[in-house]
Every structure is written in structure tokens, then in C-alpha cells.
Amino acid sequence: MVDEKKEFETWEEVINKFLTDKSLSDEEKYLKEAIKGVSTLCEKNGFHGKDYIKKFFSTKKEKDQLAIDFQRMRFNKILKFRKVISEFDFDKFEADYEVKYETLLIKYKPCRWISDAAINASSVSFATHVIKLTHSKIDSSSLYDKIDSFKPDFLTTSILREKSIDGAVSGNQFAPIFQFLELELNGNKLATEFAAESTEVLEPFASNDKEVVTWNNGFKKALSNEQLSTHFLAKQVYFPINSDESSYHLLCHIKSSSLAHAIFEGVFDPTQKDIRALREKSKYSPCATTLYPQKSRISVTASNHSNASQLNGKRGGKLHLFSTQPPIWENQSKPPIYKKSLFDENFFYQNMKEDINYLRDFLLRFNRIDLSIKNPERRKWIDRWLANIIDEFLFFVGNIQNLSAGWTVAEDIKLKPAHQYLLDPYRKGTEFQSARKGTDWQAVICDDFAHWVNRRLIGQDKQFTPQSEHRRMWVSLLEQPLREHSEMLDAELKFQA
After folding, report:
1. HSE toward the beta carbon, residue 441, CA cutoff 13 A
2. By Cβ atoms counted within 10 A, which residue in 157, 291, 373, 480 is the most buried?
3. What is the pTM of this model?
4. pLDDT of 108-158, one tens digit each?
5. Of 384, 397, 389, 387, whose CA–CA distance to 485 is shortest?
6. What pLDDT, on a 0 to 100 scale, did the predictor assign at position 277?
7. How far apart are CA 36 and CA 51, in angstroms?
8. Cα 350 from Cα 365, distance rounded (Å)
9. What value does the mean pLDDT of the chain take?
10. Where are the domains of the chain?
């Protein structure tokens, strides 16, 4: 069974739990690799024709089983294969594990581990701006921005209400020291204890007072940079401050890991992930979907992302960039007074062209419609492309609806009544509104939309021949979004009345 989350009362309990977990984690990794070696050998030998051996190596951990208990259980069972797997040295396999186990006991003995960590604490620093994000080989100072003032016109680290403080390390082998200083008790971090003049938090693990002082002084070095320095791989700008250019500032641009992490958490918000999943399934969600179009990313590290910083490891070594291009000029919408159908308008087709072409290419791969819709995966793609087309269509409709109400009163208007009811919903007049409420104009819109989609799918080469099944599908996919759109309009009209 998994250990229940326990509330600790003392730092001694917190630190002991931390070191125990680290020891068990290392032991689990060792066992996993050792057992993998046996599995590889057995696989090369066809598992010696024994199905139970093959089944053993494919067995997975039970849901409520601890990872270390699972690996220990596998280790003990493998020892029973001595007679079957004769080419493997089980004595060495067992002896190596015993040596590793004893080594971990010594390594994570509190007094021993804390002493080593205090010596290497200077290789760890708490920072908002991490120099290694510029280049992983830079070993100079990172910075902790404690400035509170900010200008709302600029996006800076200071504007963040809750900063995620990063851990900059000289190498990933020092990451456990940062994790140690990040331990919490009653909302307070262990690092804050060493910021004080003196602390007795490590006293239960020391053999004398001198050892406590040595440890405290060691961990203090992780909280401040005694000597700031730059590096030849850092980005540097010489900025003149006098007209004769005899004086200048040397500006060193360092990426804000705290700001990058705030952006990362916004982009990969777990609640948004659930909302987008509902959107892809065309299901309702009371929350709005947040999308980031034309987003790019930069890989700032190779495979070991935590080598640069702890938060960089959580981001997978990526920095996210957003488009700052100016808005694309769009023509103002004009009411289609002299058109018989709103689908005679061509300019909104440009925004749908790509999705329609994708849909057309997809449908041309199949001779019959049922081949492309009975398969759930294929039907999902059709629904997605149609959803994009319908979104653009309703966006166009919304722009027309926002024009001055009553434009359909024009005497020479040619637009069919059903299209007038959709595009000019705020037009005053009892006769018009009564006809709008008493007419099934949505069915006309859906049918006209389906015919319009089919005409576009035929294409200039006329390779695609729409069937009645296609028309019914397009109608069914528009019905619900159009009904929801109409219900929102009716509610607004009722509110205005």
C-alpha cells in the first residue's frame, strides 16, 4: 500500500523522510537496471522456452504497490531461476546488490549526507534569473531578483505576484542539495532557517556544536552570491553612457526562469487540458478555452534539462515564444443586401480554405462515405475540420449581426427571409420578430450550409462527388452550434425587451 501523506511536526522528521526517500529511490533505480540486464539475457535466449519466465518480466506493478517493494519482490523471484538460467552469475548478482544496499545506507546516513551537502552547497543557488539558460557551459553567477517595483507597461519578473524560485546548480549531481533546502514544514522552507544568524535545525544530526556551525555556514553559501561574475559565453552589450564613449555600462542579458515558468504554467494549465479535451469531443464546458496561436519554442538544453536548473527540468528544457506580429488587416463586413444567399459571399471562404482542402483530400481517399465515418479515428478528423469551418462561419455571422440593426428593411433586398432572420436578429418590428420566432429558419440555414460545403468539396477538377450522406452529415454537425448560437441571441433579445 502507498504511504499516506503524513503531517510532520519537526524538521528532524522531515529531513529523515527526505533522506529515506532518496535512498529508496536510488535502490529502486539500481534494481530496475540490474533486473533489466537479466531480462535482456533471457530475451536473447528465447526465455529458455519457459512462458512463466517471459510472463514474469512483463509483469507490471500493482496500482497500490510501492515501486521499491515491487522491485525487491522481482529481485527475490529472479533468484529462484538459478537452475533454469545457468549462464547467468546469480552469486555476483546477489552480492552486488548487498554491496549497493550497504553503500546507500552509508551515503544517506543523516550525519554523512548533511556534511557532504554542506561542503557542496556553494554549487547551488536560489535564483530568478539563471545564467545556464543562455548556455549550459556557463558556470558564473545566477541572480535573485528581489525588486518589488514594476511598470505595468512592461512584462518583468517583478510583476509576478508569486514567483517560482529556481534552483541553479553547477551540475545535476548537486540537485538533491537544492531539493533539501526546498523542504517545507508548516509552510516554511528549510532554506529560510539558514538565512538567520544561527539555527539549531540540524542539531539532532550533529555530534557536537562545532559541526552544527560548520553545516550552517556551508548552507548559507547557497543563499547568496559572494562574488558576482559574468562569462565569455554570456550575452553582453556595451552601452555607452557618455558622448565621448569613454564610459559605458556592460549589460548582461540573463533569462528569467521565474517568468519563463509562469508562462509555462499558463500554457500547460491542467484545467485547460481537460477543457480542450472536451472541445475536441464537441462536448460542453462552462469554462472558456485558451489558445496560443503561432506559438514557438526554443530548446535551451540537450537531454539532461535539470543540469541547467530545477525548473528548466520541469519545463523539459523549453522556452516558449509568442507571436508579436501586428494584426492582419481585415475588410469591414458589409450586409449582403444584394445577395440571394449569405453563402454567395466569397471573402469568408478564404479563412476556411485550408480546412476544406484537408477535408476534401481526406474524403477522396475513400470510395464510400461509410468507410470514413464508421472508424472513430477517421470520423474524429472529419468532425474536427467541420468544427473549424463552422467556427469561421459563425464568426462571419457574428460580424454581420453586430452591424446596425434593421439593414434588411431595404426595399430592394434580395436575401432570402431565413438568412435575414439569422443575420439581422436585432431588427425591430413585431411582424419581423414574429416571423423569425415562428419559422424554422435554422433548418434552411443548415441545408444551405451543407450544399455550400459540398460545392466547395467538388472542386475545379470535380474529382469528388458528394452523396446524400455527406449533406446529412454537414447538416447534423451545424445543427447544435447554430441552435446554441440562436439561443444566446434569443436570451439577449429577451433581456433587452
Report:
1. 20
2. 157
3. 0.55
4. 999 999 999 999 988 888 888 888 888 777 777 777 787 888 888 888 888
5. 397
6. 84
7. 18
8. 24
9. 84
10. 11-108, 259-321, 342-496
